[in-house]
């Protein structure tokens, strides 16, 4: 399924961090024509980022004030960042790359190119957010699998049953209590002696350790 491409940016709030010169004036004018609400400042003020949807930053000077961490600015601020580049020296461009700017505009700023940079940045940011959410879901699933595995191993060691039976017990308990199997597994790992609410004549009481279970079977 193809994801939709955002092409209309009317009503978005833009923060432009750049000295007051013809570049900033041209950029603000173009953004205004595109329907964006523009707040232009000369220095980075992180408080301004709470009320904006996209950041345009001077890559020659202002970008130094943005954080340089393992997370890119886009992830750290939760905003797409577009660099305004006047000096294409490798060291200057490296600063842009390290801060994860999603797009760029070459200076001097002209009427053309602004919309393209905005479209690429906004859609790239949307894609990054989607990927981040998918990774988070996968990490949660992986963590859940680990807990389930720990719970199964605990049941194996305590009750001397096979893995399929141990998993079936966890699943039956989850269905009986209308909980996810992950929650039941977490309870089992936290308290190995915790009893199972679901009962069946085909399985032993999980409150009993495996030695007692063996003894009970032998007496029967």
TrEMBL record:
* GO MF: RNA binding
Q: Where is the composition biased (Basic and acidic residues)?
A: 202-212
Q: Which domain of life is it from?
A: Bacteria
| Ranges in a coiled coil | none
PROSITE patterns per record: ANTAR
Q: What Gene3D superfamilies does the record point to?
A: 3.40.50.2300, Winged helix-like DNA-binding domain superfamily/Winged helix DNA-binding domain
User: Which segments constitute the ANTAR domain?
Assistant: 128-189
Name any one Pfam family assigned in the record: AmiR_N
Give the matching SMART domains.
ANTAR
In residue numbers, the region (Disordered) covers 192-220
Protein name (Swiss-Prot/TrEMBL): Putative response regulator
Annotated source species = Octadecabacter antarcticus 307
């Amino acid at each position: 399924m193809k994801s939709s491409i955002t092409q209309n940016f009317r009503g978005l709030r833009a923060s432009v961090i750049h000295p007051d010169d013809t570049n900033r004036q041209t950029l603000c004018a173009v953004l205004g024509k595109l329907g964006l609400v523009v707040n232009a400042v000369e220095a980075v003020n992180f408080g301004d980022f709470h009320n904006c949807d996209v950041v345009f930053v001077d890559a020659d000077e202002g970008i130094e004030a943005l954080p340089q961490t393992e997370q890119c600015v886009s992830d750290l601020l939760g905003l797409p960042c577009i660099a305004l580049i006047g000096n294409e020296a490798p060291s200057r461009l490296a600063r842009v790359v390290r801060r994860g700017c999603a797009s760029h505009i070459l200076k001097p700023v002209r009427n053309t190119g602004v919309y393209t940079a905005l479209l690429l940045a906004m859609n790239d940011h949307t894609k990054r957010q989607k990927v981040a959410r998918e990774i988070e879901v996968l990490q949660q699933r992986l963590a859940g699998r680990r807990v389930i595995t720990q719970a199964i191993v605990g049941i194996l060691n305590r009750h001397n049953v096979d893995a399929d039976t141990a998993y079936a017990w966890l699943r039956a308990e989850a269905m009986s209590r209308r909980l996810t199997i992950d929650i039941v597994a977490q309870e089992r790992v936290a308290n190995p002696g915790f009893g199972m609410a679901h009962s069946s004549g085909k399985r032993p009481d999980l409150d009993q350790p495996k030695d007692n279970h063996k003894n009970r079977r032998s007496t029967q």
